[in-house]
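Narrative of accomplishments. A recurring question from our advisory board has been how the design workflow behaves on a single, concrete structure rather than in aggregate. To address it, we present the structure tokens for one chain from the evaluation set, followed by the sequence designed for it. No filtering or post-editing was applied between the two.
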């Protein structure tokens, strides 16, 4: 029992169903693109899978560090789920190649990735591309199935917080007008969410830690007002 609860159950990042890819995780298959991964890649060409903003941001970032970036998307429209400003940068970057309607079928390499086999999902034609790192950005599944219908979630299962949660509860306009919107509170008063489980969160450890600290502060404010 508690006067307030903080949900920090995180999310599981989706992985490619490609044989042998697990053995390369940590050495040349990554699920984040930070300065650390960029340093490990050196100047070698890399591959990125995904059509959302995370993949787009990683593409733009890594293109400034490596010799070439191959971006693979399953559909034919890069702008379908990616912000326009990222699409523009990617399409005009000289070290980026966008492979549309393309999926990875095989990875080759022992300790480190050496090449990938890709397939055109319209024609079935395959090609082999030499890359020394693979970045996967195909979404995440939040650990919220156990919550059932107790709080408001988005279509992907991420927890709604702040104004979104207030609107889901039906009092968003009142709370906004009164300046009482607690950014990490869910649709159930006294229940807060922090980290990757929350919709709109920045998927980084430092951000999750910061949200945890913010949640403590907002819980004290909740106690004062309840």
């Amino acid at each position: 029992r508690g006067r307030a609860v903080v949900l920090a159950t995180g999310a599981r990042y989706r992985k490619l169903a490609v044989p042998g890819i697990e053995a390369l995780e940590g050495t040349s298959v990554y699920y984040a693109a930070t300065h650390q991964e960029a340093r490990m890649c050196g100047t070698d060409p890399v591959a990125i899978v995904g059509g959302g903003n995370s993949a787009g941001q990683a593409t733009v970032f890594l293109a400034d560090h490596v010799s070439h970036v191959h971006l693979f998307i399953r559909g034919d429209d890069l702008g379908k789920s990616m912000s326009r400003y990222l699409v523009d940068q990617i399409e005009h970057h000289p070290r980026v190649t966008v492979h549309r309607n393309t999926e990875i079928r095989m990875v080759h390499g022992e300790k480190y990735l050496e090449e990938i086999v890709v397939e055109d999902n319209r024609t079935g034609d395959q090609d082999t591309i030499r890359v020394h790192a693979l970045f996967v950005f195909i979404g995440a599944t939040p650990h919220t199935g156990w919550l059932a219908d107790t709080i408001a979630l988005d279509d992907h299962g991420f927890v709604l917080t702040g104004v979104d949660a207030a609107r889901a509860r039906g009092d968003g306009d009142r709370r906004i007008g009164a300046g009482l919107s607690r950014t990490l509170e869910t649709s159930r008063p006294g229940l807060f969410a922090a980290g990757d489980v929350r919709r709109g969160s920045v998927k980084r450890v430092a951000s999750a830690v910061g949200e945890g600290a913010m949640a403590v502060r907002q819980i004290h404010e909740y106690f004062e007002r309840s």
